[in-house]
Amino acid sequence: MKTLITQAEIAAAVDRLGKQIAADYAGKPLTLLGVLHGSLPFVADLMRRIDVPHRVGLVQASSYRGTATTPGEMRIDTNLLPDITGRDVVLVDDIFDTGRTLTALIDCLAAENVNSVKTCVLLWKDRDPAEGVTLTPDYHAFRIPDRFVVGYGLDHDDEYRHLPFIGELPAG
Ligand code: IMP
Ligand code: MG
């Protein structure tokens, strides 16, 4: 497997993001909301780099991938969602690809009376967003080419999430 981003590069970027979020949210009721399962390592590392008081919660989003022309069905499960009324929420996900997941989550959180919602992703793919998506991530660590990557939470068929680096699977 080809390494695209090393463990040390990830650590440095997460440190940078943590400092930036801490500065932006000092004195605010911040809740980091990790999107399961891909954000697990990222949110766990990021929360320890944000040295202002904050809460951490989880929400689940799964997209059943459709064909190239038909988007898959998006399912959002809010059973684990904490009370975020009046909170300043930062949604944390592994990757911004088409943007459909974070767009759907933001729509879903609109019913929760939050004070604000921003988004933070480790990776932002260099591609056109899906039709109807106007969102761009507020915080991101790396822009990457439009290739399929795994590791540090990102999976292929639920495998490879445990890798401490971001790698590119060989084609085929
Ligand atoms: P989006 O809704 O298209 O922005 O994609 C977000 C979700 O698709 C992520 O949370 C991932 O689960 C998945 N995804 C998109 N690109 C990749 C990739 O290159 N590797 C692994 N998962 C990906
Ligand atoms: Mg996935």
TrEMBL record:
<keyword id="KW-0963">Cytoplasm</keyword>
<dbReference type="GO" id="GO:0000166">
    <property type="term" value="F:nucleotide binding"/>
</dbReference>
<comment type="pathway">
    <text>Purine metabolism; IMP biosynthesis via salvage pathway; IMP from hypoxanthine: step 1/1.</text>
</comment>
<dbReference type="InterPro" id="IPR000836">
    <property type="entry name" value="PRTase_dom"/>
</dbReference>
<keyword id="KW-0479">Metal-binding</keyword>
<protein>
    <recommendedName>
        <fullName>Hypoxanthine phosphoribosyltransferase</fullName>
        <ecNumber>2.4.2.8</ecNumber>
    </recommendedName>
</protein>
<dbReference type="Pfam" id="PF00156">
    <property type="entry name" value="Pribosyltran"/>
</dbReference>
<dbReference type="GO" id="GO:0004422">
    <property type="term" value="F:hypoxanthine phosphoribosyltransferase activity"/>
</dbReference>
<dbReference type="GO" id="GO:0032264">
    <property type="term" value="P:IMP salvage"/>
</dbReference>
<dbReference type="GO" id="GO:0032263">
    <property type="term" value="P:GMP salvage"/>
</dbReference>
<keyword id="KW-0328">Glycosyltransferase</keyword>
<dbReference type="GO" id="GO:0005829">
    <property type="term" value="C:cytosol"/>
</dbReference>
<dbReference type="GO" id="GO:0000287">
    <property type="term" value="F:magnesium ion binding"/>
</dbReference>
<dbReference type="GO" id="GO:0006166">
    <property type="term" value="P:purine ribonucleoside salvage"/>
</dbReference>
<feature type="domain" description="Phosphoribosyltransferase">
    <location>
        <begin position="8"/>
        <end position="155"/>
    </location>
</feature>
<dbReference type="InterPro" id="IPR050408">
    <property type="entry name" value="HGPRT"/>
</dbReference>
<keyword id="KW-0808">Transferase</keyword>
<dbReference type="GO" id="GO:0052657">
    <property type="term" value="F:guanine phosphoribosyltransferase activity"/>
</dbReference>
<comment type="similarity">
    <text>Belongs to the purine/pyrimidine phosphoribosyltransferase family.</text>
</comment>
<keyword id="KW-0660">Purine salvage</keyword>
<keyword id="KW-0547">Nucleotide-binding</keyword>
<dbReference type="GO" id="GO:0046100">
    <property type="term" value="P:hypoxanthine metabolic process"/>
</dbReference>
<dbReference type="InterPro" id="IPR005904">
    <property type="entry name" value="Hxn_phspho_trans"/>
</dbReference>
<dbReference type="GO" id="GO:0006178">
    <property type="term" value="P:guanine salvage"/>
</dbReference>
<keyword id="KW-0460">Magnesium</keyword>
<dbReference type="InterPro" id="IPR029057">
    <property type="entry name" value="PRTase-like"/>
</dbReference>
